[in-house]
Amino acid sequence: MQKALEGIRVLEVGDQLTQFAGKMLADMGAEVVKVESPNGVEARHIGPFYRDEPDVNNSLYFWHYNTSKKSITLELGMESDREKFTGLLAQFDVVLEDFTPGILKEWSLDYDTLSSDYPELIMCSITPFGQTGPWSQYKMSDLTQLAIGGVMAVNGYDDVEDAPPIAPTGGQAANIAGYFAAIGIVSALFYREMGQRKGQHIDIAVHECVAGSTEYSLPYWEYQKTHVKRHTVRHALPNKSSRWIFKCKDDRYILCLNTYLDEKRWRELVNWLASKGMEGELTDERYVDDYFRATNMDNVCDVLEKFCLEHESEYIFHYAQSINLPWAPVRAPEEMLQDPHLSEDRKAFVEVEHSELNQSFIYPGAPYIFNNTPWEISSRPPLLGEHNDEFESYYLKDKALMKTSEKIK
């Protein structure tokens, strides 16, 4: 079956800010060619490495973000390689880049310059703070974006004295921007294909993507002029909320979301607890009322804590879900891989062959399932410069066509 983006060709001239967007486009069928310097992008030098052997082709970090792509090497700081790059543009639909604003203009590779010769070209630029404004030349890391974007301020602990804000797992800022970039590129392709036949420049600032995605803190300030407070493994809120995480008999933890329960679900929860003789005072009819329950939530949590300590996490999880309670165990990575719902039914993890190593590895699978335009990792991540010969011939052919065209004129 034809893939959703089959026939679309993308030149990815970038590193850690472009790689996730490029991967999503490539896995949906676009031909994505990663343009790297002869030393490779920085991501190739980030560990961990296969067999702990540092090498530009061994980075597991690079592997994850660069499936289904091709790789060519060009040194765009050299005029001869810039000519090769522009010689490819007639065959491509999209340029995805993350250079510091101004550099491409110095090389005459900016959108304004290129669009005069290639009016249907779409260029997506992902930078820390955008192409314009007083911060456009500022540098960033994932941590600084999570700090300045507000994410770090709402993550932390309320049961640890003087606990500082913390950050989620690395890469979140770039991943958020990658999602928005992929959406923007597909939208621009729609616009072009809907009869306009015109490309455009998409200016993505990581800072704006992160700030606009921060949960709760902005709305609470906008509407109530209040700051949210950090809560241990719970949503940040202006006021203290009740505990959601409890330890189970098997020493695992489970998240028991005990708010926003209607009367039916509350009664089913109490009946379950009562069937084990562990309902405590929760059979008191006053607990059916949301307000009473909210103001006495510590009592509810005490009952749930004792109940969880007496039962296995998987039992609690599955029974809770059977009575429509949104509870879930806190899982480790290996447990995710072993989950048959993900691995067998949803194909959330797939095997990718690395022919150069005569070995296959498990990769994250499709984030979405299309019944007519399938998602697929079509190839392992490319070796550095693996496709140089293929695109050298493309460039030479394009150059010969240009000369022929000039003679005809």
Automatic annotation (TrEMBL):
<dbReference type="GO" id="GO:0008410">
    <property type="term" value="F:CoA-transferase activity"/>
</dbReference>
<dbReference type="InterPro" id="IPR023606">
    <property type="entry name" value="CoA-Trfase_III_dom_1_sf"/>
</dbReference>
<protein>
    <submittedName>
        <fullName>CoA transferase</fullName>
    </submittedName>
</protein>
<dbReference type="InterPro" id="IPR050483">
    <property type="entry name" value="CoA-transferase_III_domain"/>
</dbReference>
<keyword id="KW-0808">Transferase</keyword>
<dbReference type="InterPro" id="IPR044855">
    <property type="entry name" value="CoA-Trfase_III_dom3_sf"/>
</dbReference>
<dbReference type="Pfam" id="PF02515">
    <property type="entry name" value="CoA_transf_3"/>
</dbReference>
<dbReference type="InterPro" id="IPR003673">
    <property type="entry name" value="CoA-Trfase_fam_III"/>
</dbReference>
